[in-house]
């Protein structure tokens, strides 16, 4: 589903050129759940951005479903994202002026779905927020906001879901509940999942885990003990 | 529609409130100003159409083709023929060279004739107002004709070959206006009696007029048809041209209204630009999110473009509605002062309102949002993704260009547009440079004083960019307001001066030398003083530079067709200014150069231009059959508003005294002494009294209407300025709230924070007031020099009131907002940010 080969990312800083990713090669199969772990500053989020087509590598190639993102312009990559990609963010990124229902429905409305509100309602019910459709983000707890974000991500039925520290802003108990929900929805939809986290528990639930350190993959673990859902 | 949905959600979330209100404000100000201006102007034009007794008038020295009238009638216009000529009228053994006016029965088409059955009566109860002329066989006459012909009302008089009964006296004729050339007493007769009178013979000097009235559009179409057919001896008169003084009043009024309107838009534009920037900042995460979902840049542009357009249309429509309401309120407030019903407005004010809304968004809001579509979707993951908004300089230039465009559009006057723009630009420059220095200096000063001051002043310096922007906003708004207030007072002062309470309101003309003493005695007995007596000789220009003027030139210039009043004086009269050449004492070697008997002369600039005369031109005059030459040695400009006798052509003493002369003067006659006119005319029936008080009253009424409209509109602009300040304060408020919350968390008391913030705002407002005073002074200088031709003096009041009002206003606004942060628990403030 995703193929990355010889990915390098360097940025220019006042102290000179800084290598963030160094010769990353990886492939994610359809339906696979991949965890990217590593300490802060190891390049996890940068790699996620590149794999999702939000950013370009300095060199190397990224393909989603066989289509090379690195040869496309931003409009081309946008089209790919629209077709294949969904996101869940650490800071939820809910729009404050929209209700829970409208937040979930927005991406569907943007792509012209006539039954956007019906679908959004359905997904909100699935994440347990059927009673809170008309609540604004400020009226919801952190965990509830992330549930809305999950509903929004799955409602558009992406082929690949990129999750950036989805429980990073939540307390342990709430985080676990969200994790459960994430994997449950993922299993139901058969979505390919790429997850950035530094929580071992969460990483352990993925099919495969790669560890980044200073921009390099230092470890790849395809543990049989990894359990999904 | 997606854009509408997004717009509604943004509105609901409170993100658009400022943008929307700034937009509505711009449209409201312009629409209310434009509506009122349009309607007042239409009222004035209608009122002034009374001066024409019609909406438009064609004048000709020849009989006009009958199809002109037929075509007008066919197009649904009302028409009336009028002919004016001088003719001897007789009653028994007496005769008088009367000024005869022959009218069709439906004359006047606009305005009313005021008549009386009692000659010389000043009692309003005895007067009747009629909208038609005399019946066949009847004439209506000036009261003074009766003693001149030794007759009474009801007696007959002869006009040519017909005998007509003088049935009433004329008190006021709508279109008698300022034409002082017709010296005889008026005889108003019916058009059907004209042929029988046989007074018009080939070669007779007759002034024909075709009066036209009807709906604007019909009239405009007709005039479009007529104008190409007009020959050199035909002249079309619109109300604007009917009275030069009135036209000036109209022009000044229109300019002021438009100036006020455009300044309102500039204020609203500043608010709109600030609010849009704030809105754009809030939209960054939304756009990043949309783009992460694969919404393309072009779709983002489309979505935001549509939102801006929708916002523009909705805001403009609401602005039109509110503008209409506000202008109705203005009208209701001054209804007492508006004796005339205001006509319904045309389409132009509505169009101006809508266009202002859309153009304001284009110039002020769109640049702030322009970068959003190109925002990197990576911003959803990283906060450090750099944004590339349209640069401040570029946005400033676009804003300035839009302001310039709007100013030019409103004023249709390059000088005025540029003057306002320069004032603004200079205010901005005066703010950015010195403002920075002042803030730095204050910060240094603050380090040496108490902690409240230190914190307040260091806050200003720390946020110097923001302070400077606020300073520019405040100073700009205040400069505009101060300029406006000063212009209003200056302009009105000028108007009041032009129509001073004791301005001469009567002209006495045609006083023979032997009557002078008697008239002077009568004046003295009544405690009346004149502006001084002017002797004049009536003469005709026969040759210019030794040649007879061309037929065309004569046709175009009444001054070449009639006798002019020539006068002489050693001193340059008041209200006269030599524009070219030299006044008498400075002329040297004139007699040597041109020979004895040739007179130096001074000519009025417009007449000189019309008849093609320059310095050194030689004019030949015929006075009672005798001719003499004069050479132009100076060209004068005249102030016609002084209501004192003015002369097109003046000579020094010693040249005209040999000719028969008459005298004229002007004087102020208080209303309670109006009966003096009757005494004068019964004793000196050949003296002509021109009663300007009637004309002045009419103009004063109009000026008072306009003045009150202007004052209220200025209040609207003032309110607009205050709202801009509110917007600017609100924009910086989130940061201020945050700081206040942090300070409170660290243990500062609410009182202390209030003191810091009051000081901070107060100092900012004071500085803004100071800088605004300099900007306003400069704008005033330019405006007064270029537009209102008023002398420039330093306005000290600006420098006192500006900083004081600025400090109080900004501090109170700031405190009103910051109080919220003190009453709310700090945690709540912080979590809401």
TrEMBL record, chain A:
<dbReference type="InterPro" id="IPR003439">
    <property type="entry name" value="ABC_transporter-like_ATP-bd"/>
</dbReference>
<dbReference type="GO" id="GO:0016887">
    <property type="term" value="F:ATP hydrolysis activity"/>
</dbReference>
<comment type="similarity">
    <text>Belongs to the ABC transporter superfamily. Macrolide exporter (TC 3.A.1.122) family.</text>
</comment>
<dbReference type="Pfam" id="PF00005">
    <property type="entry name" value="ABC_tran"/>
</dbReference>
<dbReference type="GO" id="GO:0022857">
    <property type="term" value="F:transmembrane transporter activity"/>
</dbReference>
<feature type="domain" description="ABC transporter">
    <location>
        <begin position="2"/>
        <end position="228"/>
    </location>
</feature>
<protein>
    <submittedName>
        <fullName>ABC transporter ATP-binding protein</fullName>
    </submittedName>
</protein>
<dbReference type="GO" id="GO:0005524">
    <property type="term" value="F:ATP binding"/>
</dbReference>
<dbReference type="InterPro" id="IPR017871">
    <property type="entry name" value="ABC_transporter-like_CS"/>
</dbReference>
<dbReference type="GO" id="GO:1902495">
    <property type="term" value="C:transmembrane transporter complex"/>
</dbReference>
<dbReference type="InterPro" id="IPR027417">
    <property type="entry name" value="P-loop_NTPase"/>
</dbReference>
<dbReference type="InterPro" id="IPR017911">
    <property type="entry name" value="MacB-like_ATP-bd"/>
</dbReference>
<dbReference type="InterPro" id="IPR003593">
    <property type="entry name" value="AAA+_ATPase"/>
</dbReference>
<keyword id="KW-0067">ATP-binding</keyword>
<keyword id="KW-0547">Nucleotide-binding</keyword>
<keyword id="KW-0813">Transport</keyword>
Automatic annotation (TrEMBL), chain B:
<feature type="transmembrane region" description="Helical">
    <location>
        <begin position="416"/>
        <end position="439"/>
    </location>
</feature>
<feature type="transmembrane region" description="Helical">
    <location>
        <begin position="468"/>
        <end position="487"/>
    </location>
</feature>
<feature type="transmembrane region" description="Helical">
    <location>
        <begin position="347"/>
        <end position="372"/>
    </location>
</feature>
<feature type="transmembrane region" description="Helical">
    <location>
        <begin position="392"/>
        <end position="410"/>
    </location>
</feature>
<dbReference type="InterPro" id="IPR003838">
    <property type="entry name" value="ABC3_permease_C"/>
</dbReference>
<feature type="domain" description="ABC3 transporter permease C-terminal">
    <location>
        <begin position="261"/>
        <end position="372"/>
    </location>
</feature>
<feature type="transmembrane region" description="Helical">
    <location>
        <begin position="753"/>
        <end position="776"/>
    </location>
</feature>
<keyword id="KW-0812">Transmembrane</keyword>
<keyword id="KW-0472">Membrane</keyword>
<dbReference type="Pfam" id="PF02687">
    <property type="entry name" value="FtsX"/>
</dbReference>
<feature type="transmembrane region" description="Helical">
    <location>
        <begin position="256"/>
        <end position="275"/>
    </location>
</feature>
<keyword id="KW-1133">Transmembrane helix</keyword>
<feature type="transmembrane region" description="Helical">
    <location>
        <begin position="796"/>
        <end position="817"/>
    </location>
</feature>
<dbReference type="GO" id="GO:0005886">
    <property type="term" value="C:plasma membrane"/>
</dbReference>
<keyword id="KW-1003">Cell membrane</keyword>
<feature type="transmembrane region" description="Helical">
    <location>
        <begin position="712"/>
        <end position="732"/>
    </location>
</feature>
<feature type="transmembrane region" description="Helical">
    <location>
        <begin position="308"/>
        <end position="327"/>
    </location>
</feature>
<protein>
    <submittedName>
        <fullName>ABC transporter permease</fullName>
    </submittedName>
</protein>
<feature type="domain" description="ABC3 transporter permease C-terminal">
    <location>
        <begin position="713"/>
        <end position="826"/>
    </location>
</feature>
<dbReference type="InterPro" id="IPR038766">
    <property type="entry name" value="Membrane_comp_ABC_pdt"/>
</dbReference>
């Amino acid at each position: 589903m995703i193929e990355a080969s010889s990915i390098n990312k360097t940025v220019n800083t006042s102290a000179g050129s800084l290598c963030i990713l160094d010769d990353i090669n990886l492939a994610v199969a359809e339906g696979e759940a991949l965890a990217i772990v590593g300490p802060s500053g190891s390049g996890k989020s940068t790699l996620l951005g590149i794999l999702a087509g939000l950013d370009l590598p300095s060199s190397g190639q990224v393909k989603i479903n066989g289509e090379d993102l690195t040869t496309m312009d931003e409009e081309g990559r946008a089209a790919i994202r629209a077709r294949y990609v969904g996101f869940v963010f650490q800071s939820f990124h809910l729009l404050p002026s929209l209700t829970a229902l409208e937040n979930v429905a927005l991406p569907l409305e943007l792509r012209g779905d006539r039954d956007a509100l019906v679908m959004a309602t359905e997904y909100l019910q699935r994440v347990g927020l059927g009673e809170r459709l008309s609540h604004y983000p400020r009226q919801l707890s952190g965990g509830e906001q992330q549930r809305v974000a999950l509903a929004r991500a799955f409602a558009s039925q992406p082929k690949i879901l990129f999750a950036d520290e989805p429980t990073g802003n939540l307390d342990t108990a709430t985080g676990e509940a969200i994790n459960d929900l994430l994997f449950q929805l993922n299993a139901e939809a058969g979505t390919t999942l790429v997850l950035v986290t530094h929580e071992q528990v969460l990483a352990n639930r993925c099919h495969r885990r790669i560890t980044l350190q200073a921009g390099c993959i230092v470890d790849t673990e395809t543990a049989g003990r990894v359990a999904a859902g | 529609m997606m854009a509408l949905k997004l717009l509604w959600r943004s509105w609901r979330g409170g993100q658009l409130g400022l943008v929307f209100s700034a937009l509505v404000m711009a449209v409201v100000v312009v629409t209310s100003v434009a509506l009122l201006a349009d309607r007042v102007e239409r009222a004035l034009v209608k009122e002034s159409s009374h001066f024409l007794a019609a909406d438009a008038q064609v004048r000709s020295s020849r009989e006009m083709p009958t199809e002109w009238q037929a075509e007008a009638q066919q197009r649904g216009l009302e028409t009336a023929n009028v002919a004016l000529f001088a003719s001897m009228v007789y009653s028994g053994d007496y005769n008088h060279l009367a000024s005869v006016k022959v009218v069709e029965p439906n004359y006047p088409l606009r305005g009313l004739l005021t008549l009386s059955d009692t000659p010389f009566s000043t009692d309003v109860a005895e007067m009747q107002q009629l909208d038609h002329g005399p019946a066949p066989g009847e004439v209506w006459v000036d009261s003074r004709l009766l003693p001149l012909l030794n007759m009474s009302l009801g007696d007959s008089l002869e006009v040519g070959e017909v005998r007509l009964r003088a049935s009433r006296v004329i008190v006021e004729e709508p279109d008698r206006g300022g034409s002082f050339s017709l010296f005889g007493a008026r005889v108003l007769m019916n058009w059907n009696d004209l042929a029988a009178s046989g007074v018009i013979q080939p070669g007779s000097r007759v002034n024909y007029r075709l009066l036209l009235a009807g709906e604007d559009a019909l009239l405009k179409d007709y005039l479009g048809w007529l104008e190409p057919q007009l020959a050199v001896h035909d002249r079309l008169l619109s109300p604007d041209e009917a009275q030069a003084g009135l036209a000036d009043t109209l022009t000044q009024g229109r300019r002021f209204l438009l100036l006020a309107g455009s300044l309102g838009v500039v204020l609203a534009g500043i608010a709109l630009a600030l609010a849009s920037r704030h809105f754009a900042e809030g939209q960054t995460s939304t756009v990043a999110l949309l783009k992460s979902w694969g919404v393309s840049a072009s779709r983002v542009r489309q979505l935001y473009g549509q939102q801006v357009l929708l916002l523009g249309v909705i805001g403009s429509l609401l602005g039109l509605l509110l503008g209409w309401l506000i202008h109705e309120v203005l009208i209701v407030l001054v209804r007492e002062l508006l004796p005339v019903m205001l006509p319904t407005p045309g389409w132009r004010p509505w169009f101006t309102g809508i266009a202002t809304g859309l153009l304001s968004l284009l110039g002020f809001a769109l640049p702030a949002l322009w970068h959003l579509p190109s925002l990197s979707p990576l911003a959803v993951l990283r906060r450090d993704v750099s944004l590339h908004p349209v640069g401040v300089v570029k946005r400033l230039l676009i804003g300035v260009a839009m302001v310039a465009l709007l100013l030019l559009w409103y004023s249709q006057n390059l000088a005025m547009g540029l003057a306002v723009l320069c004032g603004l630009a200079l205010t901005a420059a005066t703010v950015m440079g010195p403002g920075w220095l002042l803030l730095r200096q204050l910060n240094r000063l603050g380090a040496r004083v108490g902690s409240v001051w230190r914190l307040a002043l260091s806050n200003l310096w720390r946020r110097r960019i923001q302070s400077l922007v606020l300073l520019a906003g405040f100073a700009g708004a205040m400069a505009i307001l101060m300029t406006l207030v000063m212009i209003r007072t200056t302009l009105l002062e000028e108007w009041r001066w032009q129509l001073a309470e004791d301005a001469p309101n009567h002209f006495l003309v045609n006083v023979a030398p032997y009557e002078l003493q008697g008239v002077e005695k009568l004046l003295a007995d009544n405690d009346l003083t004149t502006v001084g007596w002017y002797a004049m000789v009536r003469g005709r220009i026969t040759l210019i530079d030794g040649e007879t003027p061309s037929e065309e030139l004569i046709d175009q210039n009444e001054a070449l067709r009639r006798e002019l009043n020539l006068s002489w004086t050693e001193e340059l009269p008041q209200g006269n200014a030599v524009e070219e050449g030299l006044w008498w004492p400075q002329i040297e070697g004139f007699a040597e150069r041109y020979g004895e008997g040739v007179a130096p002369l001074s000519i009025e600039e417009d007449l000189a231009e019309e008849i093609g005369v320059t310095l050194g031109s030689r004019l030949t005059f015929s006075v009672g059959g005798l001719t003499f030459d004069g050479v132009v040695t100076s060209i004068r400009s005249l102030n016609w508003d002084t209501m004192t006798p003015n002369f097109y052509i003046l000579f020094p003493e010693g040249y005209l005294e040999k000719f028969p002369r008459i005298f004229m003067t002007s004087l102020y006659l208080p209303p309670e002494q109006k009966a003096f006119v009757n005494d004068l005319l019964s004793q000196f029936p050949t003296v002509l009294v021109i009663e300007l008080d009637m004309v002045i009253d009419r103009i004063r009424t109009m000026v008072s209407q306009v003045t009150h409209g202007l004052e209220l509109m200025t209040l609207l602009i003032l309110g607009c300025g205050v709202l801009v300040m509110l917007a600017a304060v609100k924009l910086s408020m989130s940061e201020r709230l945050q700081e206040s919350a942090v300070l409170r968390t660290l243990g500062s008391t609410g009182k202390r924070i209030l003191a810091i913030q009051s000081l901070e705002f107060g100092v900012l407002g004071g500085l803004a007031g100071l800088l605004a005073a300099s900007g306003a002074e400069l704008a005033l200088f330019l405006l007064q020099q270029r537009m209102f031709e008023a002398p420039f003096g330093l306005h000290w009041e600006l420098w006192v009131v500006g900083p004081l009002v600025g400090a109080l206003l900004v501090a109170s606004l700031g405190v009103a907002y910051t109080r919220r942060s003190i009453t709310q628990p700090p945690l709540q403030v912080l979590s809401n940010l």
